[in-house]
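1st attempt posting a full record on here, be nice pls
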Amino acid sequence: MRGGWVERGTVTIRLGRAHFAFFRGYLDGLDLDALAARYLTFHLPSPNADAQPDLRLAKAALKWIREQLLSLARRSLTPTEVRLLAVAPEALAVRSQRSAPSLEAFRDEHDADGIYGEAELISLYEQIHGDKAATASRRAVRNQRLRQRQQQVLTALEAGTARDPQPSDRIDGWLDPVLARRLGVVGIDELADLVALIDRHGYHWYRKVPRIGIKAALHIGQWLQADVFRNTPELQPSGQHYHPPRSLPPASPGARRTAMVPLELFRMPKAAVDKAEGDGSPDACALIDEVAAIELWLSEKQTNSHTWRAYRKEAERLLLWSVLERGRSLGSMTVADCIAYRDFLRLIGTATVSQWEAYFQIPQENWIGTTGAGRNSRFWRPFQGQLSGSSQRQALSILSNLFRWLNNNNYILSNPMQEIGAYALAQNGPPLARLLSATEWQLVRTYLAAQSASLANARLRCLLALSAGTGLRIAQLATLRREQLQRSAGVADTGDDWQLFLPGSPGFARPVALSSAAMTEVRAYVVARGFVDLERMPLDAPMIAALPSDPSPPRQDSALQAPEALLTVDRIHRIIKRLFEQVAHGCAGSAPAGAARLRAASSDWLRRTPPDQFSLDLIVDKPGKSDDTG
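the predicted structure (as tokens):
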């Protein structure tokens, strides 16, 4: 983008206290790199917090700061003070003079024969070296006085012009005009609005502003993290919003409180515990520390896994609802409370104001936040909108698991959640059959049959065979290795004697049988990758591999080849989605209903469809357009 901030190395157009501190250190002759690292980090944005400042940008910032200071000085200072401020520190440095020799050394150099007397020698010595020392001394005193005067002028200029940013300051008073105009398009007029936007949307906040990219966003973000903002909490975005969410460990939690906050920041109120202790229900049992009990329950899952995050989400939602909405602890929840929470999940994001107020006290909008707000953000909320029927059922299943665990570990006396299993959840519209019909699968087979033979097409057919023929999730497909595919012992080689062994309970592996049609596609893909056959494929090789970046001759000895890379879960998902999109595009005219469903299909539809419906052995290679899905 065009903008002066690119050349000067900063998005700001107004001098702040950090700029004056930087220039003051420059006048004192300090190292420019060290000054930039301390005062101008917002000029040098980088996702890596340990990155060293770029000296080129530091010099560009110095040039801009000097020009701004001189412009300000011409408005309020005398011409003499302006000229003094423009003097470079190198011009005031006292250059070291050659030290005068001792009198004995001077005698050896100028009176080796002893012609001069003592007084005459001293007089000659002062004539030669005395004036130089006096001149250097006078210059040092003068330069020191000028440096002190420079600092006084700079201090006076700072006192009259510099000020810390305030939440009510307009954006165009601090940021580059181009950036300010683009922020104004989306209603960001003040600094407080900018901080709220960053808090609400997190690291990718700039996507909400037209024509502002990641580079400008990092400049703005690191400017807001400068020291001058520490005295103004309203201008400090919460959390770590200027780094990719997965590149940093979670921020350390702050003080716990009873509010709409994440689980790690929540504190059980004493009133809820007292109410639970005094509840006359025979099924009630107050937990001493419900947050600690939930965290112990979560510790049995792999930390930060999909399962762990899903369990934490549902547990903190229920805890916040029971305490803030119902005013009771989990240990004192009854079947009626669980039914009310089931209705809460059904209505969230869909109920009108009157419908909501008839059942619940806390307004519906207080529960719903925006996607992207970090867990440390003040805009975080436990929900992002309406829940589908499957999400509601999953939530109740997870919570039933939580109550069962609490009951088994003597935290509560019974599991009230198990009593609501007979109640059916209201569906949000007619249910969508998330599987491919025989007609839709025939459209996929017809499309694949028209594609020419290639490594990408062989891999795609193998993916379909493994997913549809075994019901494996794409997360399992992404981690499959050759060693997990084994032939059943004592069975003749008929094509149906191969099994995949998937990780199960600790110390056990779950076998999944492969049909002859699936094995045909697996073998074809293995040969397309350059292996002689399946038996000679390395045991640590991935079953589904990324395409090579550079074409290479067929491999003759797999031991001499570089190891192949696994496909990521996201890549497998996009490969299958692209297939369905291309099939839908090709049949949109002849089968519009099937095309619409194929566009909505995903890899999950394959594993839900009956395996006997997927007959891949009829797919043959025919000349045609290559489908390079790699």
